[in-house]
Design a protein that fits this description.
mainly alpha
């Protein structure tokens, strides 16, 4: 049975909330393989990258979520926080 994007996202978020990061990452990557611009999957995969200290990998994912859905405040908070963690203070201030 093949999952819809929404079903895969729901399963990814559920796994993410349970701390099953590898499982969540798998669902998010499946989504991004078929729809690379999906903001929720980019954002959540970026959060996973941050949580496992892959800061540089997190930035483009978080930025893509903003590029697609700039009015989503949470995406901005996550991106700015990631910039601070990556010592990119000047960029974060902009």
């Amino acid at each position: 049975m093949e999952l819809s994007i929404e079903q895969a996202l729901q399963r990814g978020v559920s796994a993410h909330l349970l701390g099953k990061l590898r499982e969540a990452e798998s669902f998010y990557r499946v989504i991004l393989d078929s729809r690379p611009e999906t903001p929720e999957a980019n954002h959540n995969l970026g959060l996973i990258a941050l949580s496992v200290n892959q800061r540089a990998a997190a930035l483009p994912l978080l930025k893509r979520a903003i590029d697609v859905h700039p009015e989503q405040e949470q995406y901005w908070f996550s991106y700015i926080g990631a910039l601070f963690k990556c010592d990119q203070m000047e960029m974060a201030e902009r």
